[in-house]
Amino acid sequence: SKTLRTIKDKQVTIFSSIPSMFQLLFSEQERGAFPDLRIVTIGGEETTLEHGHLFQRIATHPDAKLVNGYG
User: Fold this and answer.
1) pLDDT in tens, 1-49
2) Of 12, 16, 19, 51, which cross-links 41 as Cys (Cβ 3.0–4.6 Å)?
3) Helices (H), 1-71
4) Cα-flanking dihedrals φ and ψ of residue 7, to 5°?
5) Of the candidates 53, 56, 57, 52, the residue with the CA atom closest to the CA atom of residue 70
6) For residue 15, what pLDDT is reported?
C-alpha cells in the first residue's frame, strides 16, 4: 500500500492508528519490515495480544514500544 511505502521510505519512527487499521496495514508484513518504528500508539478500540505480537514482529528497533491508548 502507499501508506506502508511511505512509512518505509520516510523512515517513520512514530505511528498511531486504531487497532483494526494497524492489523489491516501490517498483518502481511515480514519480520523486521519496519526497523525504524520506535513508537506505535493504538487506541480507540480494544487492543489484543495479537496486536502485541504483530508489533513485535514488524518493529524490531531495540527501543520500540507499543502504547495502548484505549481509554
Assistant:
1) 899 999 999 999 999 999 999 999 999 999 999 999 999 999 999 999 9
2) 16
3) 2-9, 19-26, 49-58
4) -60, -45
5) 52
6) 97
58 CB neighbour count, 10 Å cutoff: 21
C-alpha cell at 44: 480507540
Q: How far is CA 4 from CA 7, 15, 70, in A?
A: 5, 11, 23
In this prediction, residue 1 carries a pLDDT of: 87
What phi and psi values does residue 67 have, to the nearest 5 degrees? -110, 125
SS3 content of the chain, % helix, strand, coil (to 5): 35, 15, 45
Specify the DSSP class assigned to residue 46: -
